[in-house]
Design brief:
The protein is an all-alpha fold. It has four helices and no strands.
Length: 186
C-alpha cells in the first residue's frame, strides 16, 4: 500500500509540474489510463517479485564463486609463502656450503703453494749440490790432467836433458856407483 501512496504523491507532483509546463509544449501525462502507468507498475512489481528468487540465487552463486576464488588465492599464497621460506632456507644452506668450499679451496691452494715452494727449494738444493759435485769432479779431473801433463812435460824435459848430459862415460860411472851402493847393502 505504501508503494501506491508514493505513486500517487509522485503523480500529483508531476501533475502540478505539468500544468506549470503545459504552456511550454512538453509535460508529464497525468492520465493513468493513457500513460499505462498501472500496467508498468504491475509489470515492474511482478518482475521484482518473480525475479527476486533468480536474482538472489544468481548473487549467492556469484558470492560463493568469489569466496571460493578468494580461498584458492589465499591457499596459493600460503603455499607460495611456504615455498619461499623453504627456498630461503635452501639459499642459506647453499651459502654456508659455498663458504665452506671457498675456505677449503683457499686452504688447498695454500697447501699446494707451500708444497710447490718446498719442492722447488729441494730441487734447487739438489741442483746446487749436483752442480757443486760436478764442478768438484771437473776440477779433480782437470787437476789430474794438468798433473799428468806436467809429469809428462817434466819427464820429456828430464829425458831430453839426460840425453844432452849423459855421455857414455858418465853412464858407466853412474852404473858403477849404483852397483857399489847395492853391493854394500846385500
Amino acid at each position: 500500500m505504501n508503494i501506491i501512496e508514493n505513486f500517487i504523491l509522485i503523480s500529483s507532483l508531476a501533475e502540478a509540474e505539468a500544468s506549470a509546463s503545459s504552456a511550454k509544449g512538453f509535460g508529464f501525462n497525468t492520465n493513468f489510463l493513457e500513460a499505462n502507468v498501472i500496467n508498468i507498475v504491475i509489470l515492474a512489481s511482478g518482475v521484482v517479485y518473480l525475479g527476486r528468487n533468480f536474482l538472489t540465487s544468481a548473487l549467492e552463486l556469484r558470492q560463493q564463486k568469489i569466496s571460493e576464488t578468494i580461498q584458492e588465492a589465499e591457499d596459493r599464497l600460503k603455499q607460495a609463502t611456504l615455498r619461499l621460506t623453504e627456498s630461503e632456507k635452501q639459499m642459506a644452506q647453499a651459502k654456508v656450503v659455498i663458504e665452506q668450499i671457498k675456505k677449503e679451496a683457499e686452504n688447498t691452494a695454500r697447501k699446494v703453494k707451500e708444497t710447490i715452494l718446498a719442492q722447488g727449494k729441494l730441487d734447487i738444493e739438489r741442483l746446487t749440490n749436483t752442480g757443486k759435485s760436478s764442478i768438484e769432479k771437473a776440477e779433480i779431473q782437470i787437476k789430474k790432467q794438468i798433473q799428468q801433463h806436467i809429469t809428462s812435460l817434466a819427464l820429456t824435459r828430464v829425458n831430453s836433458q839426460l840425453k844432452e848430459y849423459m855421455t857414455p862415460n858418465l853412464q858407466s860411472k853412474l852404473i858403477d856407483s849404483n852397483i857399489s851402493q847395492l853391493g854394500g847393502q846385500i
